[in-house]
Amino acid sequence: xxxxxxxxxxxxxxxxxxxxxxxxxxxxxxxxxxxxxxxxxxxxxxxxxxxxxxxxxxxxxxxxxxxxxxxxxxxxxxxxxxxxxxxxxxxxxxxxxxxxxxxxxxxxxxxxxxxxxxxxxxxxxxxxxxxxxxxxxxxxxxxxxxxxxxxxxxxxxxxxxxxxxxxxxxxxxxxxxxxxxxxxxxxxxxxxxxxxxxxxxxxxxxxxxxxxxxxxxxxxxxxxxxxxxxxxxxxxxxxxxxxxxxxxxxxxxxxxxxxxxxxxxxxxxxxxxxxxxxx
Length: 279
Ligand SMILES: C[S@@+](CC[C@H](N)C(=O)[O-])C[C@H]1O[C@@H](n2cnc3c(N)ncnc32)[C@H](O)[C@@H]1O
Known about the structure:
By secondary structure, the protein is an alpha/beta fold. It has one domain: Vaccinia Virus protein VP39 (Rossmann fold, 3-Layer(aba) Sandwich), CATH 3.40.50.150. It has twelve helices and seven strands. The protein has helices at 4-19, 23-29, 40-44, 67-70, 88-97, 110-122, 160-170, 190-193, 196-200, 209-218, 236-239, 245-252; strands at 78-82, 102-107, 128-132, 145-151, 171-185, 222-231, 257-266. A seven-stranded mixed beta sheet has the order 3-2-1-4-5-7-6. Strand 2 (102-107), helix 6 and strand 3 (128-132) form a beta-alpha-beta unit. The longest helix is centred in the first third of the chain and has 16 residues, at 4-19. The protein starts with a helix and ends in a 13-residue tail after the last strand. The structure holds S-adenosylmethionine (SAM). Residues 11, 15, 60, 62-63, 83-85, 88, 107-109, 112, 134-136, 151-153, 156-157, 202 line the site of S-adenosylmethionine.
């Protein structure tokens, strides 16, 4: 994979294809990783079916956490969901923020946006909106969201610092995010790292956990916490599509780990602790 634009083209094409499939087809197509026999997404994704607001047409089985469960959403909040897919987390968020709140899903894949809009229309929601756009240039003015959520997306964004800088920009002062994403501990074997199928399958684009947290700190967020951490076990038959038996053994005996984390952080309000405004 050569540059950011070609990576994004590949990601867009793959998720456009996935948008046209059912969750069952996505399971058998393996995290969009053609050639695999089982599915990474179903390993990563959590069970949504008991959550209030769950809409099965919006659930393509593409998440790696339940950010709405950790995001401390409140009635009336404005919530942005970055990389909203068919709207799965948006509809859960809508059930929490209610009629007076607002949910904005943002995705760069047009077919995903269309699918999400169809779902919102069927539900007759007036306050759930889907915008076509990129996370590196969020289609929104500054200081608009009370809460930002995202589910298994930022690993796909080539420049993660740009993504978090944009998240900082559009959050209101005093706002926060809960983001579920894939991170690594240790180095993946090159054959996995360089496989485009592993990139679109949410593995190879992931960065080291410490680097991920350092980026969040660098762009200015405070009170950074990991709310949930889950080890992702990729089945051998998938790994053997890229690695020899020996390479697989070496990887298993190493300390390399692929994790789904849900991470929280706050954009400090412009007032000081004693409520005296700083600006
Ligand atoms: C793994 S899917 C997750 C979808 C959704 N969050 C869910 O859990 O069902 C990744 C989604 O992120 C979108 N995406 C990837 N990179 C993006 C970017 N740079 N800007 C906006 N959307 C992006 C893709 O189009 C796709 O819909």
